[in-house]
Structures are given as C-alpha cells and as structure tokens.
Amino acid sequence: MVLDADILVRRAREALATPDPAQAVADLLREAITAEPAALRRALRDGDPSSQPIAALGMRVLVDSAELTMFHTSLPPGFVNAPHDHRTWAVVAVYKGEEHNVFYARQAASIVPVAALRAGAPRVVVMRDDAIHAIANTLPRPSYAIHAYGGAHFHLARSMWHPETLREEPRDDEVFRGWCRDMIARGAQLPDVPA
C-alpha cells in the first residue's frame, strides 16, 4: 500500500460503496497498518501541528464529511476518557501501542461495563453504531491509530456518560474534554471487565 493520507482517504471513500462499508474500511486499514509503522506515522503526521513531542492527545483530521470521518490520533501515556457513543459504525486501526477499550451496555437509566478489549498493534477493531465504550492508554509510551467513522463524527448528536455517576448526557465536547483532563489528572482507570 502507498503510504499517503490522500490515497488512504480516497480508498476509504470507495469502500463506502460496498455492501459492508465498515468491513471494507477495516480491511483497507488492516492493509495500511501492516506496512512499516514508522513510515505510516510519518505519512499521516505530515503537516500535523501536533507532530511535536507528544504530551497530550494529538489528532490530525484526514477527512470530515457527511459520509466519512477519518483521523490519525496519538494517545499519550495515562490517557483515559469517559464512556461515549458514536451513533455510526467505527473502525479503529492501532498500528503502534495499544488502545484499551471497555464496552458498556444500557441498563435502566445507566450503563454497565460488559466487555473489554486490549487492541495492541497491529489490531483493527470494528464497532457497530450502537456501541458505547471508553478507551485508555495504559502503556508508558504513546499509542497511534487511525480512526474511521461512517458519518459526520464531529457533527452528530451523540451521548456521553459521566465517568463516576454513569449518567447519560448529550455530548458536549468541552465538558467531555474536561472530564478527560480530570480523569487523567486523578490517574483514573477503566473498570476491570473480563476480556
């Protein structure tokens, strides 16, 4: 595979026309992450202002459209976030490091943790549009991944759950980032759930 962000986006857009777009994008990203991780990282970080030494969440948006959102992300050591949904299928392709996922199910007016998955590189995870999850980087070094979503990820009405009360709220990015900063500062960890 040619390690070029524009080609990756073009091929992902083509995958949307297949009978199972999420699986087609997963196959594309699986092919991409089996290439040399350092070369992939260089290709995806080209022109990325967060390409300085990673001290916080770094993200480079590759495409943000009504049909497809893709971004390259780095999670610093100790990163953790609150449970949230996407309301569209999601594909996460970890090519260096690990994303620890905890998945939740709705229960009455709350959610409960039901499964865990440590997506260590190279690993591709496909999530359905009803998935609720939280992620963490428990490694002592940054983790790198490509995230893809079958819709306007940054513009959809979504939900988030308070990290302690697990009360559902409409997604508010500023509040969500504040929760994440607080969780990281406190050294919060995701709940232990059998994998």
Q: Write the H/E string, N to C.
A: HHHEEEEEEEEEEEH
Q: CATH first level: which class?
A: Mainly Beta
Please give the largest β-sheet: 5 strands, antiparallel
- Spans of at least 5 consecutive residues whose pLDDT stays below 50 are 47-55
Number of helices: 4
Q: From the 3D coordinates, which CATH architecture would you assign? A: Sandwich
At the fourth level of CATH, the homologous superfamily is Jelly Rolls
* Cα-based radius of gyration, to the nearest Å: 16 Å
**The CATH topology, please?**
Jelly Rolls
Number of domains: 1
The strand line-up of the biggest sheet is 1-2-9-4-7
Strand residue percentage:
25-35%
* Distance between the amino and carboxyl termini: 32 Å
- Return the average pLDDT rounded to an integer: 90
Helix content: 10-25%
Description:
It contains four helices and eleven strands; from the N terminus they run H-H-H-E-E-E-E-E-E-E-E-E-E-E-H. The chain is α+β, with helices and mostly antiparallel strands and 195 residues long. It has one domain: Jelly Rolls, CATH 2.60.120.10. The strands form three sheets. It has a five-stranded antiparallel sheet, with helices on one face. Strands 3-8-5-6 form a four-stranded antiparallel sheet, with no helix packed on it. A two-stranded antiparallel ribbon has the order 10-11. A hairpin with a 2-residue loop joins strand 5 (98-107) and strand 6. Helix 1 runs antiparallel to helix 2 (21-33). It is globular. 34% of the residues are buried.
